[in-house]
Amino acid sequence: MLFVLILSNRAASYGAIMAALPYMQLYIADYLADTMHLSAEEHGAYLLLMFNYWQTGKPIPKNRLAKIARLTNERWVDVEPSLREFFCDNGDEWMHLRIEEDLASVREKLTKKSAAGKASVQARRSRKEADVQTKQERNLTGVQTDVGVMFEHDANTKATNKDTDKDLKTDLTHPKPFPSGREFRDFVAGVLEGRLSGGTAAEFCNSAVVALQAAGLDVCREYPVPERGDGCGGRIDIVVTDRNGVRCGSELDRNSPRQKSLLKIGAVETGICVLRRSDIARHTEQGILVIGGAVRQKKFDPLSVDLPDWLPETLWHEWVQFRQALRKPIRTEQGANGAIRELEKFRQQGFTPEQVIRHSIANEYQGLFAPKGVRPETLLRQVNTVSLPDSAIPPGFRG
């Protein structure tokens, strides 16, 4: 079941982001399935974090999590382990992958609608200008439509008032590529695809410039073009030219191609849209090649982490396989080490790793939880654990 949250009119006062993102989709069935183990307090904190994420349109700084969740620092320490599994910790911020995907989708739709509206206005303007030009040409050639007087041409005489180059307008609007254009574009794509690094847009762009220069190409940054889709001029991030004069433009975008990037690239003979991603296959959008430029990172294997002596390898493998069966695999080293720390915490409380993992699997929890209703001191004594000697002789003891 899909529940669409419509933000109130008061949200408009929070800035342009709210005008661009008017709704948020919340799939109730999926949400309840993923959060069955949360308490009422944890539910409230999780929803507040998601709403703030959508409202601001960006990841949440870690130092603001407790404040956004309306919790004191003491309460936040208790609920953080349960909420951490729904986010990706990049060191400074918490990211929510599903919300990031929804944000990208909404922004793409809004961009396309805006571009379509502007194109419609431009088309009407062009038709009006064409009508005015046609009337002027008729007056110049002696055509008097109001009184029905027309000039006649001899059948053997070629008309001089006709456009002999019917494709002139098309060629100027959509310049035909040079014969080597596609080959040159593919060469540039091979230089950039999967070879760039950098956490910011500037670092990513510098990495692309270094790669192109290393391939022996002359690089021009911020190449000016007359149109970017809104009637204003723009600049292509990078343009390189081959020996035949073919220009190949490269626009560097984050997660998906921007409409204005595709329009700017269309001003040169050929071009590429390079995304700061490594998980995207090469494809074309509106005739422009789209590639992933980020260095492909090796997929993390949670079975490769170093385990403490008190955690059996077979037990850890069982927990990893269970998470995979839930379609909630452990994707990062931080997630794996976090689970081990949780087991250590329960171990200090008197629960063995096997008791915690077996209990969590039996209840199909995504996280690790100790058995409820069982006091640690009532658990079976671990005969394989060596008891520590008493630090002092109890009072009244007589040998």
From TrEMBL:
InterPro entries attached here?
A: DUF1376 (IPR010781)
Specify the superkingdom.
Bacteria
Query: Which residues fall in a compositionally biased region of kind Basic and acidic residues?
Result: 128-138, 152-174
Q: Which Pfam families match?
A: DUF1376
**Region Disordered, residue ranges:** 115-139, 152-176
* Protein name as annotated: Bacteriophage protein
Organism equals Shigella sonnei
